[in-house]
Amino acid sequence: MGILGQAIALFILLIAGTLGFLVANDIPIFEKADPAVIYGEWIEQGVAPYAADRFEVRRDGIYIKGARTTSHYEFTGRKLIYTVGNNTYLYVVEDANTIQREKPYHYSTPFTKVR
């Protein structure tokens, strides 16, 4: 295999690796995620009502107890990610009304959209 063959093989390997990375990390390649899908108030399930975490996603940020805690969040269509202080929160969309908290790592819990 000459230098041209090696260059072509390296290029193909680079493209395959990039596509593999995008697929493995659920990064949409051609579709634009609609953030309106995630807008609303979310309440933690499986805990006592007085101890349940709740937050609201709006166009301009994440709100907890009516106060905006961050104005920056990322929604990929499958994952919601935001940071408050030193804590990064990651939620995975299960269906239109349920998301699953995956980070912080101390426990994983479902949240249901109430409005």
Keywords:
alpha+beta, nine-stranded antiparallel beta sheet, 1 helix, elongated, single chain, 115 residues
How does this model look, in words?
The protein is α+β, with helices and mostly antiparallel strands and 115 residues long. It is 19% helix and 41% strand. Strands 4-3-2-1-9-8-7-6-5 form a 9-stranded antiparallel sheet, with no helix packed on it. The N and C termini lie far apart (62 Å).
**Number of helical regions:** 1
Q: What is the CA-atom radius of gyration, in angstroms?
A: 19 Å
Largest pleated sheet: 9 strands, antiparallel
Average pLDDT figure: 87
Give the strand content.
35-45%
Distance between the termini: 62 Å
Please bin the fraction of helical residues.
Answer: 10-25%
Query: What's the total number of strands?
Result: 9
What string gives the helices and strands in order?
Answer: HEEEEEEEEE
Major sheet: arrangement of strands: 4-3-2-1-9-8-7-6-5
Structural class: alpha+beta
- Are there runs of 5+ residues with pLDDT below 50, and where? none
What general form does the structure show? Answer: elongated
